[in-house]
TrEMBL record:
This is Methyltransferase. It catalyses: a 2'-deoxyadenosine in DNA + S-adenosyl-L-methionine = an N(6)-methyl-2'-deoxyadenosine in DNA + S-adenosyl-L-homocysteine + H(+). Keywords: Methyltransferase, Transferase. One of its GO terms (molecular function) is DNA binding.
Length: 247
């Protein structure tokens, strides 16, 4: 578990290749001094990622509309988006809905076929019992067989793309801190066990905590030296997977 202090665009590429990259860059949605969009990093990240890897980026619709061309020009292909649903929301405008969600977009390298990208999509044990019948398998259904199958009560099903996870409101050490539980889902999905996760904008170090819990290696970068040390202390306080468990 390593967290560097400095500019991620300079430090992170030389430490790859990564099995997965997480990025929570400034969205550029406000006038706050720290909320300024940073350009150039998507191209640096692509060169540091293995062909089988994924880049997961947090953002708002506004930020992705503003930066979409940069991701495309840097050699990234869009895979899917998730919605993180928060228990509370915020709004800087009295004439708009209170925003209680953020987007997370998965990208992969444009020179790698999707079939070669590591994906272990989690399931949830909350499927309702039902029988599904079809005469022909639609081409978009992937590996689901034609004919019929039965789903038992409480059986597994793919996790939904809208993921409700409580944020760290009242406990956060960083203004844009993401919950460990949410980051752990992404890490287990796109990084193989023992693989290396690159955290491009480390902030509070929550991704490092998630990597410890998931049994993945972690290397992050944070430009604020005070926050970087707080993140290191936080990560160091968490036992790695399997430690402290009696045989």
């Amino acid at each position: 578990m390593t967290l560097l202090t400095g500019d991620s665009a300079l430090l992170m590429p030389r430490c790859g290749p990564y099995d997965m990259i997480l990025a929570d860059p400034p969205y550029g949605d406000t006038a706050l001094a720290w909320d300024r969009r940073i350009s150039g990093w998507p191209a640096k990240a692509r060169g540091a990622l293995k062909p089988s890897g994924s880049l997961w980026v947090f953002g708002s619709l506004r930020s992705f509309l503003a930066t979409g061309a940069e991701f495309r020009d840097a050699g990234w292909k869009y895979a899917q988006e998730l919605v993180w649903e928060k228990q509370n929301g915020s709004s800087f405008h009295a004439d708009r809905f209170r925003r209680a969600h953020e987007l997370i977009v998965q990208f992969y390298r444009d020179d790698a076929p999707w079939s070669c990208v590591y994906n272990d999509v989690p399931t949830t044990p909350d499927a309702r019992g039902r029988t599904v019948r079809r005469k022909h398998r639609p081409p978009h259904m992937g590996l689901i067989d034609a004919g019929h199958y039965v789903s038992e009560d409480g059986g597994p099903r793919l996790m939904r793309s809208v993921i409700p996870v409580r944020n760290a409101h009242g406990r956060a050490i960083h203004p844009t801190e993401k919950p460990v539980a949410l980051l752990e889902i992404l890490i287990r999905t796109s990084c193989p066990p023992g693989g290396l996760v690159g955290d491009w904008f480390a902030g509070s170090g929550a991704a490092g905590v998630a990597c410890r819990l998931a049994g993945r290696r972690y290397l992050g970068s944070e430009i604020d030296p005070v926050m970087a040390q707080r993140a290191r202390d936080r990560i160091a306080s968490v036992l790695p997977l399997g430690e402290g468990i009696a045989p």
